[in-house]
Amino acid sequence: MLERILKILIIVVDCAGPLLIAVGLFAGILHVTLLDISLLVGMHVITMGGVTVGYHRLLSHKAFKTGVKTRRILAILGAMSGQSDPIRWVDLHRRHHRYEDVEGDVHSPHLSGEDFWGRLKGFWYSHLGWIFDDDWERSDFRYAVDIQNDSVICFVSRYALVWPLLSFVIPAVLGGVLTGTWTGFFSGFFWGGLVRLIFGHHVSACVNSVCHVWGSRPFVTKDYSCNHGLVAILTLGEGWHNNHHAFPCSARQGLTGWQIDPSWWFIQLLEKLGLAWDVRVPSQKEMLRLDRSRLQNT
User: Fold this and answer.
1) 185-218: b or e for each residue (b if 16 or more CB lie within 10 Å)?
2) Alpha-carbon torsion, ordered 134, 136, 142, 147, to 10 deg
């Protein structure tokens, strides 16, 4: 029952929040300080990194291996994003890869027709609409059986409602301590907690919606995945989505030097510190095999 209430609250916040914030900024009601921006950016990087490095590349695709403590920290940071517990997130994401823009894909924008209204409906569904659908909640987690047997991940999932609350408490306390005022406390709660949550949810949703509609497709895949540079920057590298669908088990998604991929940089740091190993990336031969421009010229 509590999870259902939280789900409804998140839907309301995600739908109405951006508009209310925009109106507040335009009307001058909301005042932004350098500390507010720092808490917003800092908490976004921490929680989004938990999703991209922890939930996605480590747990969903096993793109690298790590120890128990590092896995626990990454899973907790992912849970702090408010994007569900790790078991449900992994199950949904693996289901997406199992069906990839065909019937059964939980958040594809290409299942409502290819006319204007069908595409508009599909885009809405892939971005936020699928959350309203209860079918995805009736999962038996068949795609996440392996991590259901992981005691570390079960612990994080068991307390899945605690971690998002922690992501509000941390910036609120920092704002209060650094300014020495209750105004700083509530400002930290608002910008580092609420605004960060809304921003994180929407840029993550853009991977499902924008990155399956607009962008470049350098690799041949069976789906509509696209690379989108702006989404990649905002999601710490997840916007190189065509690269990802071509090589889903790669720890690196920005496959060229100019493709910004902070999540990959962090995995490299973990590897240098001895906290990550068996890091998987596609070879040059594997990339050439799926290179669209090369195949079109042969």
Assistant:
1) bebbbbbbbbbbbbbbbbbbbbbbbbbbbebebb
2) -110
Q: How many residues does the chain have?
A: 298
219 CB-contact burial (10 Å; exposed 0-12 / middle 13-18 / buried 19+): buried
CA separation, residue 85 to residues 59, 144, 259 (Å): 12, 12, 29
DSSP run (H or E) holding 36:
helix 34-49
Nearest Cα to 164, choosing from 32, 50, 60, 71?
50
Q: H/E element holding 66?
A: strand 65-66
CA distance 70 to 66: 6
Pairwise CA distance, residues 64 & 210, whole Å: 27
Identity (one letter) of the amino acid at 1? M
Is the dihedral angle over the CA atoms 12, 14, 20, 21 positive or is it negative? positive
Strand 65-66 to strand 276-277: parallel, antiparallel, or no bridges (unpaired)? antiparallel
In order along its 298 residues, the chain shows pLDDT tens digits of: 545 656 666 777 777 677 777 766 766 667 788 999 999 999 999 999 999 999 999 999 999 999 999 999 999 999 999 988 999 999 999 999 999 988 888 889 998 888 888 888 989 989 888 887 766 566 678 898 999 989 999 999 999 889 999 999 999 999 999 999 999 999 999 999 999 999 999 999 999 999 999 999 999 999 999 999 999 999 999 999 999 999 999 999 999 889 999 999 999 999 999 999 999 999 999 999 988 776 666 5
